[in-house]
Amino acid sequence: MDNTEKILNEIDQIKFKDYIPEEFYYLPHNVVTALKRKNLSITAAESLTSGMFQSTVSQVPGASQVFSGGFVTYSDDVKSKLLGIDPKLIEENTVVSAPVAKAMAQQAARVLHADIGVGLTGVAGPDALEGSPVGTVFIGVSNSLSNNVRVKEFHFSGDRNSIRLKSVVAAFVLVEEII
C-alpha cells in the first residue's frame, strides 16, 4: 500500500470534531508549497464542504500565488449555472456520484483557467440524500496539464462536521498525489 492509500485509510480512524487534527496540519502547507514550486494554480467546486477546502488553502501563507478563487455549489441548479455541468449528468447519476465529482473538478478548473481542479460532493447528514447514506463522499481531482483525473469514493463515519473535515483532508491527499 502506497503512502497516499495509507493516509486515506487512516483519516476515518482518527477523531475529527471541530478542526483538522494536528497530524494532518502539514497537508495544506505541503500542497500549497508544491503548487508554488511547480508554478501551478488550484481551484475547487465544493458542495458538502461549503468552502472549507478553499478556506483551508487560503490559510497557508502565500496561497494567493496559487489560488485565486473557487465555487461553493451547494444546489444542483448552481452546479449547472456556475460550472456548466449538464443537468442530465446529475439526473442520471445523482449529485452524490463519481461522474458529478469529476465534472465539478474539471469544470471549476476550466472556468477559472486553473491547472488543478477539485470537486467535493457527498452527504454530510443528518439525513441520507438521493439513496446515498450519510458519510458517502466523492472527491474528484483533475490536473489539466497532464490530463490526469482521479475520483475516489469514501464512506466516512462521524457527525456532520467530522465528515466535512475528513473530506477536506482527503481532498488534500488526493491533490498532493495528482500534482
TrEMBL record:
Protein's UniProt name: CinA domain-containing protein
Domain CinA C-terminal: 28-177
Coiled-coil stretches noted in the UniProt entry, renumbered to this chain: none
Organism: Companilactobacillus tucceti DSM 20183
Superkingdom of the source species: Bacteria
NCBIfam families documented for this protein: PncC_domain
Pfam families listed in its UniProt record: CinA (PF02464)
InterPro entries from the UniProt entry: CinA-like_C, CinA_C
